[in-house]
């Protein structure tokens, strides 16, 4: 990590959770960190707590749903610090809203998790390219929900759709920067449930085994620490003992399903047997068409 000493890092969603912990650890490592977030009071508290550390912490009040806010913030970083070496896109919103839910919830999730993320990446890359950054890195805090469907969690379908978009954006950006021959690495870090404020939006997730923000920061540190020739493209992090049945149990309780694990297992087996029975019947009764 010594190579990043004195380098400039922008962290979005810096006022709490993974973003706050990331700022703390990077400042301790000697980096110049700029935190973007909406809650200025939280940013001020973070600034006070990081005084006297090896690195430095600055903040800019930013709503990543506002392109104007984002552009002003990156211009401030460019003017004041004359560099951007790392961008950590951590800002995210999760609303418990299904496909029949509120339009405003959908817009907020897409504006924050997808559009805002991509605007931040675009602006950071512009500055890196203009200032001829020798080693750049963009890290997107994604989600395990960006890789797998969760059929028993329909109330976060829009959220997981935004994270599937982040998976595609991350890989496409890595390819694009490679074709442009720019020395900028791109990483997606996809955690399962993390104990943060965002989880408060979805009650049944709080019952699961959860990761800590520090676990995700360790993954960020690893992705940053490897040699420039190595691009850690994806890290998926699950809590130990996490399993699908626990998720199914929690979601079923919330949505007041009335069947047990045994009922579910019997239903699945019965369905499989019926399909096999029909397949065998069709095979046995198959007639060779006359020519």
From TrEMBL:
Matches recorded under Pfam families: adh_short
GO molecular function: oxidoreductase activity, acting on the CH-OH group of donors, NAD or NADP as acceptor
InterPro entries associated with the record: NAD(P)-bd_dom_sf, SDR_fam
This protein's name: Dehydrogenase
Entry keyword Oxidoreductase: yes
Family: Belongs to the short-chain dehydrogenases/reductases (SDR) family.
Entry keyword annotation includes Oxidoreductase: yes
Record's keyword terms, sorted: Oxidoreductase
């Amino acid at each position: 990590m010594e190579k990043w000493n004195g380098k400039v890092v922008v962290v979005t969603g810096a006022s709490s959770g993974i973003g706050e912990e990331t700022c703390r650890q990077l400042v301790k490592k000697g980096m110049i960190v700029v935190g973007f977030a909406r809650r200025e009071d939280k940013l001020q508290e973070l600034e006070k707590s990081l005084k006297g550390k090896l690195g430095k912490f600055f903040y800019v009040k930013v709503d990543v749903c506002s392109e104007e806010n984002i552009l002003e913030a990156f211009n401030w970083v460019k003017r004041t610090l004359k560099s951007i070496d790392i961008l950590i896109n951590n800002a995210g919103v999760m609303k418990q809203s299904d496909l029949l839910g509120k339009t405003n919830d959908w817009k907020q999730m897409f504006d924050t998790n997808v559009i805002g993320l991509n605007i931040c990446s675009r602006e950071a890359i512009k500055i890196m390219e203009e200032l001829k950054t020798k080693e750049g890195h963009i890290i997107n805090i994604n989600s395990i929900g960006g890789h797998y469907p969760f059929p028993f969690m329909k109330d976060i379908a829009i959220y997981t759709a935004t994270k599937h978009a982040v998976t595609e954006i991350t890989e496409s950006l890595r390819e694009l920067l490679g074709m442009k021959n720019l020395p900028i690495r791109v990483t997606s870090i996809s955690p399962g449930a993390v104990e943060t404020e965002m989880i408060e939006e979805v009650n049944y997730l709080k019952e699961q085994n959860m990761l800590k923000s520090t676990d995700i920061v360790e993954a960020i540190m690893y992705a940053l620490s490897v040699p420039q020739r190595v691009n850690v493209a994806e890290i998926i992090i699950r809590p130990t003992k996490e399993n699908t049945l626990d998720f199914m149990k929690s979601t079923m309780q919330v949505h007041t399903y009335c069947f047990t694990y045994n009922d579910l297992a019997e239903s699945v087996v019965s369905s499989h047997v019926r399909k096999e029975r029909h397949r065998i019947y069709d095979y046995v009764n198959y007639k060779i068409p006359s020519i």
